[in-house]
Amino acid sequence: MYTKVVHMALFKEEQLDHAAESITRLRSLGISDKDISVISGIPFSEKILDRPMNWTNVGRIGLAGAILGFITALLLNFGTPFLYPLRVADMPIFFPIPTSIVVAFELIMLGLLISTFIGVFVETISPSYGPQGYHPKVSDGHIAILFSGPMDLDQQFHSTFAELGATLEHDVEEEKLWL
Amino acid sequence: MAAETKLFGKLKTSEQEHEDPKEQLMFDPRPREELNRMVMEMMTTTTRKFWLWAIGLGAGVVVLLFGAWGYMISTGMWVTGLRRPIYWGVFIVTFVFWIGISHAGTFVSAILRVFKSEFRRPFTRAAELMTTFGLAAGALYPLIHLGRVWVFYFMVPYPNARWLWPNFRSPLVWDLLAITTYLLSSTIYLYLPLVPDLAMARDRTTGIRHTAYKILALGWRGTEAEWFRLKKAIQIFAFAIIPVMFSVHTIVSWDFAVSQVAGWHSTIFGPYFIIGAILSGVSAVVTILYVLRSSLKHMDYFLRPEHFDALGKLILVFSMSWAYFFFNDYLLGWYGGEAAVRQILTVHATGPAAWVWYTMLICNIVIPWLTLWNRKIRRTPWLMFIITLLINVGMYMERYTIIPLTLGHQRTPFDWGVYTPQPIEISIVLGTFCLFTFLYLIMSRLIPLVPVWEVQEGQVAHSLRKVGKAEVPSVTELD
Lengths: 179, 479
Hints:
The complex is a heterodimer of chains A (about 180) and B (about 475).
Chain A: E1 4-11, H1 16-28, E2 36-39, H2 46-49, H3 58-83, H4 99-125, E3 143-150, H5 154-163, E4 167-170
Antiparallel strand pairs in A: 1-3, 1-4, 2-3
Chain B: H1 2-17, H2 32-44, H3 48-75, H4 90-101, H5 103-114, H6 124-146, H7 171-191, H8 195-202, H9 207-216, H10 224-257, H11 269-295, H12 299-302, H13 305-336, H14 339-350, H15 354-371, H16 375-378, H17 381-402, H18 404-407, H19 423-443, H20 452-461, E1 462-467, E2 470-475
Antiparallel strand pairs in B: 1-2
Helix pairs in contact in B: 3-19, 4-6, 4-11, 4-17, 5-6, 5-10, 5-11, 6-7, 6-19, 7-10, 8-9, 10-11, 11-13, 11-17, 13-15, 14-15, 15-17
């Protein structure tokens, strides 16, 4: 039984290739992908850093919101005339097509967009797995490779990252960045 | 020999005309640390002039907008120039104007993002902010125009005491739904790409600012999952907000077109209004960019002649499209043979208010067509400022022509009338201009107006590639 410690390797913004290389080397040292996390000041695709594919439910949550918007539109368009019929010009009272299409469109879009945002918000504040940590230099363009690994490999981590031109920090547990 | 010299002379001129790639923002990268510092300085530098403007505009909002509106509420709508047969005046004109202005944020940000137009990067946020505040200013007008503002809740979809619901077949209810949808979604669309920049601001501030940015940044660290999620959400928004934008101004046009009013009942009003809105909105973006460039520290690094050039080309295209739709609407009205419509068209061009109609044509067609084909003019920010300001004068005149000038000459000549905006109306209109500028001014010191991460992403993706003997600008897709 050994204890895992979170390390953070900081690469300068122009050292992207070295950052990608360091992930390969960490794998060869026996660190699995779930124990590695990359934080950066700009987005890089998984392919660039050779990382596993990410996933998110934002699209699905958005779709659910769109369906909810559609149901609301159905109730407003086709339900409210039953509660109080209103005669307007020569339009059908109970099945107001095509005017209901406009209301349906707006509410579907409203549902989609608001729930997409809710999805982002909920996923963002939900606890995340993998090594946690932050350094303000990330918003200055540095690329940080966070990984948790056994202390007995510490010497090898140091020599690997020194060779790649990164600075290595230990015990970079996440400070409280939100509420 | 003479011919050769001439030829070489020409070549030299054409070579000189080629822009050095280093003059473009994407090929003139600076370290992210420096970009952050520049943007933070923009946000935190306030001069005496800034405070004078802020106080002046704030006073304008209080006196011109809320003071005049309060007076109008307490005395009644008779203080306005609205009389039979003209019940829609400058309030509705300005409502359409602001809703039109608000289209630029989506256009510049969402459409250019979808098509991966790289020049958009430094000014998407400035345009999105314009959308949000333009909509906020515009959304006040249905309330102002209502007169009895306290009964506004009748529009809200809930049953009143008699179980009477709003009429969902009315374009006015559609307006409420469309504007609410657009306001909420464009505000979120402004906020989402702002989160990484708020985190950057969080890392560089202390005290109350730090606390505010910390809350708004939602604990952003920049993990792969966070970027992936953000990109996904921005993508959904960029695609979904475009049809919403189209729907908003189409519905505004239906406020007119579904009626039987001569000159309004037109099937082409939807696209005609949209094109006008985009022309007016993109022009307003240029106007604002010029003001930002000349008033904010370091903004001249981010906003360069290339951006005015690109937007100038867009404006020229939209001016031509607007002319096309205008002519379509005009010709069919004239050709259709309905006496009232022909009478209206004649009055527009020869009546006492013909100057409004000609100002519209000069500002929307003549000025852009005579100037914007020229690269030098497009790349001269102060000239672009004047041109775009004039285009928006033209677009305001267009709405004025469509609304009170058309309403005053309907089918029954004994009921013709002339509308003169009264000081109270002019005050309220000026008040919303103060409100828009005030909100923009304050916000320019609260949020990073330049999306730093997007600029850096663009700079990383751009490079000069050697093709043959030339170095050619190229873009790599990092996605």
